[in-house]
Amino acid sequence: MRIDPKEFHVHNLRYIIRSAAEDDAKTFSEVRLQIDGETEYLDREQGEAFIDESGFKKIIKEDTESINSLLLVAEVNGRIAGFSRCAGNALKRTSHKVEFGVCILQQYWGFGIGKNLLEASVHWADSNGIKKIALNVLETNDKAIRLYKKYGFEVEGVLKKDKILSDGNYYNTILMGRFND
């Protein structure tokens, strides 16, 4: 699906939250690769599960045409600074829910981009009959956990020793969900 673009001004940074377009595919691939190398909060290391331009074109097209998926970008000066995705599916038993994920280039952390992508996604879900938004978050990502709780997400479970990070230690993944009854 698509949403109307919305402009934000935070700490002298102007950005737009909008639906992804097929023209974004090449930049999407580059930005995702860069983000994967900037943080260990995500599942992938840089270069793993790489999606090229044609792969992103397919994802963007499918998400735009789907009634229960949403792919958003945060655009700064015509360049993607981050993105979020609510990935739904057509299976009858799980078509009421979406999986949420968000990625922001590190240089744009602290400008409310993640919060505004989340807020737009929650509004879209609530307005389109989505009953559950599910997400996974690394236990050490306290800022994200606080934000998710602020928007009504609750802890549903913990996957123990789910990730091994560069320090050689294992970390838990927290499963969270937001319900729209």
Automatic annotation (TrEMBL):
What GO molecular function terms would the record report? acyltransferase activity
Q: What is its EC number?
A: 2.3.-.-
Task: Report keywords, A-Z.
Answer: Acyltransferase, Transferase
Among the Pfam families in the record, one is Acetyltransf_1
N-acetyltransferase domain sequence ranges? 15-181
| Keyword check for Acyltransferase | yes
Report what the protein is called.
GNAT family N-acetyltransferase
What is the source species?
Answer: Paenibacillus residui
